[in-house]
Amino acid sequence: MQRYFLKSAIEVVPEQTFELTGDAVHHWLTVMRAQPGDQAEFVTIARDVAVGTLVTATKAAATVQVMSVTTPQVELSTPVMIACGVSKGDKTEQIVQRGTELGAAGFVFFDCQYAVAKWAPNKRARKLARLAKIAESAAEQSHRTMVPTVSYQPDLATLVTAVPHAASVVAWEESAKQGEHSQLVQTLQQLPTGEPLLAIFGPEGGLTPAEIETLTAAGVQPAGLGPRIMRAETAPLYLLSAVSFWRELV
Amino acid sequence: MQRYFLKSAIEVVPEQTFELTGDAVHHWLTVMRAQPGDQAEFVTIARDVAVGTLVTATKAAATVQVMSVTTPQVELSTPVMIACGVSKGDKTEQIVQRGTELGAAGFVFFDCQYAVAKWAPNKRARKLARLAKIAESAAEQSHRTMVPTVSYQPDLATLVTAVPHAASVVAWEESAKQGEHSQLVQTLQQLPTGEPLLAIFGPEGGLTPAEIETLTAAGVQPAGLGPRIMRAETAPLYLLSAVSFWRELV
């Protein structure tokens, strides 16, 4: 069933109706060609999921009758913020799309020394808007009950201060080469349920020793993610899978 | 440093030379423009890694002097065979590329009922050859010491018989919906180190209940991979990350 995220604080009560507005109306009525009687799922800001039936529609709004309301638990009990160096091509899009499927709470992109790509300041807002769209669409498809946030920070020092977290790791190849393999597990073991984890990843070119120093001075722990070299856009997927496995399956 | 997999059983002994032949010669000399004195890494069939210096070269062969030989342990201690329904577009390529980075021992693609794509029999060999190339190139980049195999099986029943394994799971959405979340952990706990795991994933359209029945009758365990819906090409990455996390970090 098609799923939409409600952008305003709408209360969904079984048997009552609500007015659907915004992009979802266009998508449901025009793209999906919904007719009165058709159903879709609507996720509220409070993460409730309502199954709704289309009652009547104009071009800009639709009246939807609520059939049922549930509160599925599909979000990671450890909110994970994925911070990545700006990458070229569609790598940032891939990180957001797959990372959303794997349960990320949000994504932060940052400028750094070895970044192959730079986001021109005048294009930044447009890029973030596009990534936010990708996150929303991936969240719908993976039946999430929240849309991950997407934001930008100019550098690592600012990022560590600006992004709230209770624990933080940076994936560092040198760590892995030196045989470091217990930091991620330790961090997860010590992190209380519900507290956010900030996980930082370099761009294709990696982070510089100076950048790693900035991070460790700020309390971020270098962590190895196994003995194989992963590309910049694969490492965040490994981390998210590991957190899900640890918190949801083990 | 550029890395090449040796295709024939060449013994690498420090200070001695060997003849490099095949595709690697073309790539190293013509694409990378190697000159005498330049170095590269050469992985033997026995998974030793030799650093070699180019001594002399013709168009078809190069003489390489071995500088050092190491035997890095970068392969998963649980060989994982990833079996996926044939997918459309570049999804099979993505599975092979990223799955190789994440340590897969091999990939098997199979035909099934809800597959959106079919491999025409006359194109199958070409598709497999292309995927094998992608696996090799990803194995070089991720510093693996083996190239994952790529093969095809006509259906699930044949696949389960043909692919050697000591344990097997099938990722099944319905399993996850019913709250199944301990099978993968149980399977990993019971599987002796070194024994191969076969992990089966449906195509975009999923597997049919009859296909799941065929698998369970053959001893394959349905396993949930957390409460979020993953796309066909993301689920294998989750599983490989989870196996690495469990075997290499925990």
From TrEMBL, chains A, B:
UniProt keyword terms in alphabetical order: Cytoplasm, Methyltransferase, rRNA processing, S-adenosyl-L-methionine, Transferase
EC number assigned by the record: 2.1.1.193
GO molecular function, one term: rRNA (uridine-N3-)-methyltransferase activity
GO BP annotations listed: rRNA base methylation
Record's subcellular location: Cytoplasm
Catalytic activity reported: uridine(1498) in 16S rRNA + S-adenosyl-L-methionine = N(3)-methyluridine(1498) in 16S rRNA + S-adenosyl-L-homocysteine + H(+)
One cellular component (GO) term of this entry: cytoplasm
Annotated ranges, domain Ribosomal RNA small subunit methyltransferase E methyltransferase: 76-243
Tree of life domain: Bacteria
Main location, first listed in the record: cytoplasm
Keyword Transport annotated: no
Membership in a protein family: Belongs to the RNA methyltransferase RsmE family.
Function, as annotated: Specifically methylates the N3 position of the uracil ring of uridine 1498 (m3U1498) in 16S rRNA. Acts on the fully assembled 30S ribosomal subunit.
Protein's UniProt name: Ribosomal RNA small subunit methyltransferase E
Species, as recorded: Lactiplantibacillus mudanjiangensis
Upper lineage: Bacteria, Bacillati, Bacillota, Bacilli, Lactobacillales
